[in-house]
Amino acid sequence: MSKDRLIIFDTTLRDGEQSPGASMTRDEKIRIAKMLEQMRVNVIEAGFPIASPDDFAAVKAIAEVVRESTVCGLARALDKDIERAAEAIKPAVSGRIHTFIATSPIHMQNKLRMEPDQVVEQAIYAVKKARNYTDDVEFSCEDAGRSEFDFLCRIIEQAIKAGARTINIPDTVGYQIPHVFGDMVGRLIQTIPNADQAIFSVHCHNDLGLAVGNSLAAVMQGARQVECTINGLGERAGNASLEEIVMAIRTRPDVFNVETQIATQHIVPTSRLVSSVTGFAVQPNKAIVGANAFAHESGIHQDGVLKHRETYEIMRAQDVGWSDNKIVLGKHSGRNALKTRLQELGIELATEEALNAAFSRFKDLADRKHDIYDEDLRVLVLEAQAHQATDVYELVSSSVCSATGEIPNATVVLKVHNQEMSASAQGSGPVDAVYSAIRAITKEAPDLQLYSVNAITSGTDAQGEVTVRLEKAGRIVHGHGADTDIVIASAKAYVDALNKLVTQDERQHPQHSV
Question: 17: helix, coil or strand?
Answer without folding.
Answer: helix
